[in-house]
Structure formats: C-alpha cells, structure tokens
Specification:
The structure is a homodimer.
Chain A lengths: L11 E9 L4 H11 L6 E4 L4 E5 L1 H16 L5 E9 L20 H5 L4 E10 L5 H11 L6 E5 L2 E7 H18 L3 E9 L7
Antiparallel strand pairs in A: 1-3, 1-4, 2-3, 4-8, 5-7, 5-8, 6-7
Helix pairs in contact in A: 1-2, 2-5, 4-5
C-alpha cells in the first residue's frame, strides 16, 4: 500500500517556531531552551524556525517541554510547526536513533499544567486513500481527555497542554504505522487574552 | 492520475496565525486587519488561528497584506499557516467564487517593502509520485527574484515579502494544476533581531 521509497530509518522530526507575544520574546525563548534537555535530538535553529530530529518519543518530548516552559511564564505564547516521519530525502543525523527511549523532560513537564487550544492536520503522503487514514484517526482522537472539534482543514483540541501533545503524538504514531511518509501540522496557543473574553 | 474525489469547486483557503512578538500584539493584529480589505474572502477567526477562503488570488492577496501591514510596524512579526486547495471535505462558502479576480489589497501592499525569511513545504496529496511534483517545483522557484535554499522538510526563501508571497503563490498554483488536492505550509518572519547579528 505504501510507496516504500523512503529510507530505512524511522527518524522523526519537527520543524517548529515558538512565538511569545511579548516584548520579552527573546528571554522567554532562551529561558525555555535553558530548561529543556535536548541532548537526545539533533537540533538546528535559525531566525525562522527550529528543527529537532531523532526518535519520535524525544521529538515530542522536546517540543512539548519547550512549549510548556514558555507557557508557564503566563505570557501569551504559541507554537506552530510540522512533524514529519519517513521523508524520502531524510537520512542525516541517524546516529540519534541509538539513544535510549527514556524521555529526558517528562518529569519536569509533568509539573506544569496549562490550558491551551490547538489545531492540527494529518497528511499521510503518497497514498490515494489518504482521506480514509485521516478520518479514521480523527475519529480515534475523540476518546481522549480533551475536547475535540472540527475546523476548516484541521481538527481542534482543547485541554491541558500535555493531553494535547499526547493526542498529537498518538495520532501521528498511529498513522505512521500504516503510512510510510506522514506529516502533521499544528498550532498551539496558551494564555490568549481573547480566550478569556 | 489524481484521485478526483474532490469537490467540483476550486475554492482555496489558508488557515494561518499572525504572531507579533510584542506586548502590543493585539493592537498590531487589529491594526493590520483594519488596513486589509477582506470582503472578497470568507473569513473566520478564533483564539488559535484565522481561516480565509475563496479564489486563490484573494486568499494570497489577503494573507500577504495582513503580514505586510503587521511587518511595517517594525516589530518582530511572523506568520505561520497552511494553504489548501481541492480538499475533499471543503464545499462551504462557494459563493465567494463569484467574486471578480481583481485583488483588493495589491495597491496598498505594493507600497510596503520589507525583507523577510520564509520556510515552506508543498504537499501534493493522494499521489504516489508526490515527490516528483515537489522536486520539480522546488527547482522552478530558483528562477525568481529571491534567495532559495534548502532546509530540513522545507525550502527557505529570503527576500522582499511580496517576492516571497509571489513565489509561494506560483509554486502552489503550479502544483495544483497537476494535483487535485494540495496543501502548502509556511512560516514567514520579519524584523527578527537574530537576523541582524
């Protein structure tokens, strides 16, 4: 069913940007980076975005932790990005696949509770029946500890940041088990003043 | 070649968020919205993102204008989003397809010059040969008035905001001529302090 033209490695990655809507944006980003252990992922940052790559568990662990540590400042922060796995062009940094599976930031992250809203979209690539894979997964996400609603081109999740990232992780993981190359876009937002009105 | 399970309308859309990295983020967003004529697109906004839908020309005209008017404040601003066309579930707001093709914000936008960096990725859906469509298009974008480089999971464009949006528009348009359902993610950033160091 899948094209299987992808590399043998199941290296995952996320290209994302953290957006603190604050004059202190640089301090908030650097502060979050300082709190998060990124040693189990390959990482590259420029002025537009950050890319982390490695085992799926660590890619989600690091992106979640960065968002949580920025959100706990109480400032309005958002993060947008794209998770990817099985990209045919993607072979660099395979050495990070030798890391153990223990997430490095789970304990610290578990101590932070913060409500957020998130929109995400799953894109199973290289399949003519890709809509079935999307609909099947969107249906599954209804069972989790979060509010699920539909938006144009996206599914909306509301709840605790950790529950949202868990749903993103599970959705992505389930689709990539069936489809070799999958991408998933997301935008998550916390402490928005327009959410309080 | 394409699945052709899509609706008959070629309504395009963009789900995006404008991120001013400033304490004045609300004023900057509202100020940009005030400058931009969105009457030729369907529009819906919540605390996570904004969705505009209609003819492709107007979807690009409005998103570019919103970013330009926010960027001209001189504050560090970014925008992330996903353009989409031919989504099988997408039939609402078809009435906006009757609008004329003249973009409403072109004249005002042409008066704003601002350098930016942008990363984008094209996702032709429902095709087993989707990578060919991507590579073909990435090659074409080299001919435009912008600096093109490659990043993980994305292509990077540097130059004037209007040239960047023109390249995004042309790339998206060219792929959707061949592939029924196409999505394109982008993150564009202007006035970044880390770009000046």
């Amino acid at each position: 069913m899948t094209s299987n033209s992808c590399g043998t490695s199941r290296i995952a990655g996320c290209q994302f940007t953290l957006f603190p809507m604050s004059d202190k944006f640089a301090d908030i980003i650097l502060g979050a980076l300082d709190e998060v252990d990124t040693s189990k992922v390959w990482k590259d940052t420029d002025d537009v975005s950050t890319c982390v790559r490695g085992k799926m568990v660590h890619v989600f662990d690091v992106t979640q932790a960065l968002f949580l540590h920025a959100a706990k400042t109480g400032e309005h922060v958002a993060m947008s990005g794209t998770f990817s796995i099985g990209c045919p062009g993607d072979t660099e940094a395979d050495s990070y696949m030798d890391e153990t599976d223990t997430p490095l930031n789970e304990e610290k992250s578990s101590q932070i509770s913060r409500e957020a809203g998130c929109k995400f979209s799953l894109y199973p690539m290289g399949r003519t029946d890709y809509m079935d894979a999307i609909y099947e997964q969107i249906d599954l996400s209804k069972h989790r500890n979060i509010k699920v609603s539909s938006a144009h081109y996206a599914t909306r999740l509301d709840g605790d940041v950790k529950d949202i990232f868990q749903a993103l992780h599970q959705s992505f993981d389930r689709v990539q088990e069936k489809v070799s190359h999958v991408t998933m876009t997301f935008t998550i937002s916390a402490n928005s003043p327009s959410n309080k009105t």
